[in-house]
Amino acid sequence: xxxxxxxxxxxxEIKPILTSFDVELLKSLLLQYRPEDIADIFWDxxxxxxxxxxxHVEKQKAVEIxxxxxxxxxxxxxxGYTAQEIAQDVLGFLDSDDAxxxxxxxxxxKAEEVLSYIEDQDYANSLAAMLHYDDDIAGGLxxxxxxxxxxxxxxxxxxxxxxxxxxxxxxxxxxxxxDDRSILKGVVSLKDIVLSKPHISVIEITNINFIAVNxxxxxxxxxRLMNKYDLITIPVVDSMTRLIGRITIDDVVDFIKExxxxxxxxxxxxxxxxxxxxxxxxxxxxxxxxxxxxxxxGLGSSMIISNFEGDISHLPKMAFFMPVVAAMGGNxxxxxxxxxxxxxxxxxxxxxxxxxKLGKEFTVSLLNGLICSAILLSFNMLLxxxxxxxxxxxxxxxxVIIFASLLGTITPLVLDxxxxxxxxxxxxxxxxxxxxxxxxxxxLLGRILLGAI
Amino acid sequence: xxxxxxxxxxxxEIKPILTSFDVELLKSLLLQYRPEDIADIFWDxxxxxxxxxxxHVEKQKAVEIxxxxxxxxxxxxxxGYTAQEIAQDVLGFLDSDDAxxxxxxxxxxKAEEVLSYIEDQDYANSLAAMLHYDDDIAGGLxxxxxxxxxxxxxxxxxxxxxxxxxxxxxxxxxxxxxDDRSILKGVVSLKDIVLSKPHISVIEITNINFIAVNxxxxxxxxxRLMNKYDLITIPVVDSMTRLIGRITIDDVVDFIKExxxxxxxxxxxxxxxxxxxxxxxxxxxxxxxxxxxxxxxGLGSSMIISNFEGDISHLPKMAFFMPVVAAMGGNxxxxxxxxxxxxxxxxxxxxxxxxxKLGKEFTVSLLNGLICSAILLSFNMLLxxxxxxxxxxxxxxxxVIIFASLLGTITPLVLDxxxxxxxxxxxxxxxxxxxxxxxxxxxLLGRILLGAI
Lengths: 453, 453
Known about the structure:
Structural class of chain A: mainly alpha
Oligomer: homodimer
Strand order of the largest sheet of chain A: 1-2-3
CATH topology of the largest domain in chain A: Tetracycline Repressor, domain 2
Distance between the termini of chain A: 79 Å
Number of helices of chain A: 21
Helix content of chain A: 55-70%
Shape of chain A: elongated
Largest interface: A-B, 126 and 126 residues
């Protein structure tokens, strides 16, 4: 068992070699590490050092390292490569899905140039075709490398085919059975091939009750199907149900993680996928748009409140409870919208029917609102803020919690209906609206219940 | 190709049968649906209807349906089953990992009773042993069902072994090679077995440079390894590196999704995993704790502000800008903490060294703070709020954004150091603290800069 190496250890060992240029030592050190582990240290070394490493491991491993790099690093890395080098030294060693991923991060012109350097014209054409799919649909997630056999073959013919394609297809989990027009007829597990007599017809062990996806199915749909039916691979077909590729679960895991990250970022008010190691400029740019939304909202609040300047000057204590009313509205709204957003994402939402949900949300928020209001009322009475003001604050609180909860329930459902990412509704957007409305309600109630103060 | 059925359609077709009790019709209808699809409608039917369905599909399919149910539904469902029925009719048809999942949702006493009804004493013992692992570590995620072969066997002996275990092990992706003391020596892919001559020794095609995990490795670590090295299965070993189980990627996908959901919930201020279909009581209970945190924070704010009652009564306009200061602090703080939390979760955080991060965060927040303050200043001057007040508001804004950003950076790192889920720092907790501090800073600045107003 050769378990995983720590990034720090490799970095410690490799640094002196990178300055001494001891090629033999470098080679023997790199032999001990997996490509994924070598890729890890690329954040911490210079571009020319990275190239030095890549040039001194065997081709297949070099390509595996490049494939494992973060997209940002790949982009930086390929700036130092000519189109010809990328075509011949990199893409030639990669599966088509990884090749397309790399082509898609290159500037369009360079990508086309790379394609022109690929010797196998058919392969270049199919890469070009795959480039047309967005990277969040089945066609963008699939790879072309798969083992396909004809439905009238025997098991031993299938084994021969696997042997032929073994070099091109790294990992075989299933064999796809097609007819003469490439139409997908079924799937055979490798286990059944191992366990069957060589002379029987493959159709006898073929599962014809399989699940496939169209090339234009969304990544979410692919993830949902593979997750629900515990699939390791899923075949991709065109509109004529001809087999055009297959998606493996590891690509879908990446997709699921990216989707979850996106929701988390939207909820936190980040407009791009940023990491703390990004530049100050990128970090600022990702954060500023949502801060602006908050700022606009704040200006809105200030205008609302300015209508109540007289009330405040009459009873400055009104100002004491502005934050609690605003904050509680924000909190309750985000809770409601998060429940809906998660239900939409996990497909656990029974129906998208808004009305019954609003009814329930009303009950829940009324209950929580009353509990919070009662506690606040007791505190305010104890602290001697007077009966009238305490009643106003608590009435405003329960109203705002109910309003914010209903708004938090409706907004993601409406966004979803218009095909906008509902996770938008869990972020600063909903908090900001709730701030404004909450404060308006609070001061209006104050004016009504406290009389013409 | 028999693609996926819609839940609605099945429900529509099955409802009349459930009232007419037409067994033959029911059987033929259920034959057309996958177990995962049948499980979907269990939310919408009564318990006795569910049992009626389970009793009229073949055993293996019935168990697949039960396995696919949501944990909450399983719990409800098993209340109507005796320990003996669960042992014989359900667990007997499941892989060990799924069996343990079901045992773990039963009350302890019933689980023990179920174990006593399992005829194969060795199997019962191993289930009992697996029950001791938490469900978020490798031991709790693994299944015992795997194909293991001895290192001195030939390929044809391996194929014989796969055949023997074929009934027990549904899907075989890899074969594990062990020595006489069960110590894991390597992994063989099924593809290599298919492609090898029957008489060669399995050790010749064994990959000895494999990755395994200890039974006590965290689920996060398992997910990270499988994701990084694109693994479909990973073997689990004990402290002596003896093979005790294997984890497949589909269980890890579930784990990754649950973890992402947990972070999302913490960020939204939900204390349990709830769905909009949960009862009002459960929904309220999940939401109330964080509302209480917000409430306490609001009380804190009100006490801080009450110290400035004189200032407010003197200059009621001060109240106009309380919301913008509080909200912007909250937004900036959540942004910072989300970046750190995501870095911790995705292992992209170079070092956990706090100081350089704070330096960068200071620059980013100073930049964003200055931009926001400048905009707010121009607006306030335009709206005629006067130079003095406008300067106070904008100075407070930049101070609060910087403070909140630094606090948002530190908090998750500190929580992580104490092994508390850092995602806690992205929720109402950080917003609440920022509200209080922000308003304090604002009024203090007001008092200082506006003189003794």
